[in-house]
Amino acid sequence: MIMDMNEQHSNTQTEVEIKTLSESLIDELVGAVALPKNAFTHRLFWRLFRGITDRLAALGVPFDRLVRDQGLPTGCRWALTHFCHPTLVRGQELVPAQGPLLIVLNHPGTYDAFTLLSALPRLDIKWISSYIPFFDKLPHTRKHILFAERNDPAGRMLVMRQAIKHLNSGGCLVYIPAGHREPDPHSYPGAAQSIENWLDIFDAFFKYVPGLRLQPAILSGMVSRRWAKHPLTWLRSKQIDRQRLAEFGQVISQLLKPGKFKATPRLSIGKALAEDELRQFAPFDSLTVAAKKISQSLLEGHCNEFGCWASPVNTEA
Fold first, then answer.
1. Which terminal residue of the chain, N or C, has fewer Cβ atoms less than 10 Å from its own Cβ?
2. Which of 25-34, 78-87, 91-100, 268-277 has the lowest average pLDDT?
3. Burial level of 105, CB count in 10 A (0-12/13-18/19+)?
4. Which CATH class, in words, describes the domain spanning 2-306?
């Protein structure tokens, strides 16, 4: 009798968690199609898309428990199995197992953070992200995230202090210096040019974290070429907004028809470099310039290996 009551309580708690997570996704859908986020659009999209957001939310609950029990990389690997084929990785063996490490990643969106995190041989990971209500409501995952908003200077300074503290404790920090979505090298032009616009922040990390190493990483294959060209994306004029719509359309189709289409992420990880090694790439300039150069070089090798937009090697959807 007591066991039945405990099971019933657990099921009820899970249902509440799923509903909360599902509702947190609605405004993201509203924003993707450039509608105002208000009570009317929230109710409308809740009625139209709740079945879809419930499916994603139902994955969020066990994912968060896996993060609690086995760590963030294991949770990410499990989550990716629902959307992706195994990641094609080169350079995974180059990731240091310990010591302060700043991993610099491009931002093609969709499953990008999960793809990188799933490949890391460490548990002491935090990553800097814009505010995402869905992740904020996952208590064990939330411990690994430092939320920062571009329009909140005070909040960004606090996050910077927290990031430096984590690095000084010997931890691993994943940082996306673009601060916004970038072209997926697999499906869109402009990935190398986007790196030129990365935030100028790397000197500050090295100034306050002795022994820090920087490691570049490049991802592609988050958005399929089919969805990149989908008529749904014509609702928006800017490429960055079209890519966001393509992401939402792709993930929604995957939730509606599980297993019918899976993306094939490609990940390249470069060598981890200390400050003196990094300065060799830009001896008379800032560390940000050096970080851009090594990331663009890694992108070039990535495209040679896996194929990129308009590349003859790039024949997949």
1. N
2. 25-34
3. buried
4. alpha beta
